[in-house]
Amino acid sequence: MRNATCTLPIAVALISLAAPFAWAQGEAEKNPTGAAPAPTATTTSDAAPPAPSATATVAVPTPTAVPAATATAPAVAPTTAPVVAPAPLRAEAPVFVPGLPPYGEQRWGGHHRGRDEVKGKAKSRTKVDRGGNFMDTRLTWTIGDDDVLHSTGLAYPLSPRLSIGDRSQYRLFFDNLNSRFSGRENLTHLVMYKKLPGFIRNLETEAALVMRVDMAQLATNSNNLNTAFYDAGSYLRMFYVTKRGDEDAKTPDQGLDLTMFPLDTDRFRLGYLYDISWGGTAGYINQSIFPRIRGGSPGFKLQFQGDGFYVFGGLKTASIVQVQEVLSPGTNEVETIKIAETNYGFLGGGGVDFTRWLRLDVGGGYFQQGSFELPDVFGERVYTFGGSGRLVVHHNMPIPRSVDFMLYKNDPNAPMTMFSRETYKEGEFAWALSAEGSRLMQHLKDFDRPGATALQSANAGALQATVKASYLRASLTGIVRDLPFVVRNQPGYIPFQTMPDDAKTNPEYFVAGAADYYIPGLRLTPGLGAGVKFPSTFKSESTDLFGGTISRTVVVREQGNISILP
Q1: With 0-12 CB in 10 A as exposed, 13-18 as middle and 19+ as buried, what is 514?
Q2: For residue 250, what is the DSSP state?
Q3: Which of 47, 194, 256, 440 has the highest Cβ tally under 10 A?
Q4: Residue 150 has pLDDT above 70, yes or no
Q5: pLDDT of the residue at 125
Q6: Residue 86 near residue 58, CB atoms below 8 Å
């Protein structure tokens, strides 16, 4: 154990780019024949422009005058038919352009909006169409030393000398509490996105293939491409609009939303603050509710968005390696084999805005986690169920939401801003206060009673406060998690077993605060963050052959991150 540790990371030039590139695909539609457009005369006037019209006007070239024929010359019949101007198009017969919404609709807020619905006026639209590109790109240059008080090899974990590059030891427990990332990553996302109107009126369809590229993992030259290229939330989505939102009031559209995840559902979780969320499926970082998962966990989420409320339900499936007894072919003998069996997870919940400043969210779920392999409870089902709730009081500040729960939308008509720069206004005052709690029940083998199982509870809670006053912003977060919740995905401190009756455990407590101040003249926002953490512990006692008491304390920071005290 280290008695003193000083961490000195310096991060420079963190760049976040969200969908910076686009290309237009409209010239062929404006001029399909490739001919140069006819010149038109324009005048400049201070008067208001005329109201747009649904009538299409076709420019007809004026025929050149032909000299009169002489009296002796016979009249020559024209060889071509005279040019006749076509009749104007009727307003009630809009022209359909492939790739654009029907009925002369206009995109607004990620959905289609009718021309008659925007303040009763028709608005012009520039169509931007693209297949997709890279977004949410993060580049970080870091230099530091995670232990300046000890030379290499004198303390554990080992700390090399000052170097350039990120280290796992740089991450502190209060770094980005609402995200799985610390902010020092070098990664990007390839998003192939498309959104089109459905065949049914008011039905919108969209799809996105999202691949995360971890450049730091590629730089290790470990040939482990599964951790460098992987799915980051690809989805198919259908949204049936029952009522259009108000653009001026910035209210969303209402309707039925079906999102299908063909590869993995890690973005579909229960809980609200990322650090105490549950139901995820990221097994490679020990955050999968399905232990011993093989591959991804596809599923779907069905949600209805109403006026000031929402309800949702969903399903996840996962292949978990578990022991199964089968009959040997051609015999009556029973043999035990390991197979990847399908297990299910069911999620549901909702939320309601009681007022413009008060919000309540609730959610719950049930997850199958394979079966026991222990002899006295062999074959019995392992499962977890529970619920989460959050109460938010806010003023002039949006309800917080983790970026890791959002769907990537590379839509040029409704750009997705994931890491927008914080804005400060002199004299503005805004604040938000949220309280969140989760309680799980896990069906495990009873450690003290052979052949029996029991339900073990796992609990967590968080309290957050954020305030903005002119150019000052400050936040304070407190989290408590008991030991079973810290190792909820294992599940159990002793895998698949309850805590021993004579064991002593302590929950995890920590408090973190941060503040920054924007200096307009320098366009600089210096900030400071600090926190204190008391990790959860497991303590057991036993008696040796001479009657002496042996005590051992284990510090558990996260699943797989433990330290044994001397």
Answers
A1: middle
A2: T
A3: 440
A4: yes
A5: 44
A6: yes
- The conformation of residue 494, written as its DSSP 8-state character, comes to T
Distance CA(308)–CA(302), nearest Å, equals 17
User: What DSSP line would sit under 63-118, residue for residue?
Assistant: PPP-PPPPSSSPP---SSPPP-PPPPPPTTSPPP-TTS-STT-EEETTEEE-TTTS
Task: Give all strands of the β-sheet with 504-506 in edge-to-edge order.
Answer: 504-506, 536-543, 549-558, 561-564
Higher pLDDT, 325 or 196: 196
460/40: higher pLDDT: 460
Give mean pLDDT, residues 7-21: 33
Range of weakest confidence among 74-78, 407-411, 453-457, 496-500 = 74-78
| Contact partners, residue 302, CB within 8 Å, separation at least 6 | 256, 257, 258, 259, 312, 313, 314
Exposed / middle / buried, residue 356 (Cβ in 10 Å: 0-12, 13-18, 19+): exposed
Amino acid at 510: F
Predicted confidence at residue 102, as pLDDT, reads 41
In this structure, is the dihedral angle defined by the CA atoms of residues 284, 288, 292 and 295, taken in order, positive or negative? Answer: negative
- Give the per-residue pLDDT at 544: 74
Q: Are 240 and 199 in contact (CB under 8 A)?
A: no
Q: Taking the CA atoms of the chain, what radius of gyration do you get in angstroms?
A: 32
Other beta carbons within 10 angstroms of residue 499's beta carbon come to 21
Give the contacts of 116 (CB within 8 A, at least 6 positions apart).
Answer: 122
DSSP sequence for 296-320? ---EEEEEEE-SSEEEEEEEEEEEE
Give the CA distances from residue 161 to residues 2, 171, 184, in Å, rounded to whole numbers and listed in that order: 17, 17, 19
What is the Cα–Cα distance from 244 to 218, expressed in whole angstroms?
45
Q: Which residue bears the tokens 């691949």?
A: 211
Cα separation of 289 and 370, whole Å? Answer: 11
Low-confidence winner among 40-44, 143-147, 165-169, 432-436 (lowest mean pLDDT): 40-44
Q: With b meaning 16 or more CB within 10 Å and e meaning fewer, what string describes 7-35?
A: eebeeeeeebebbeeeeeeeeeeeeeeee
Q: How crowded is the C-beta side of 131, counted as CA atoms within 13 Å?
A: 0
Report the share of the chain in percent with pLDDT over 90.
Answer: 48
Average pLDDT, the chain: 79
CB 446 within 8 A of CB 452: yes
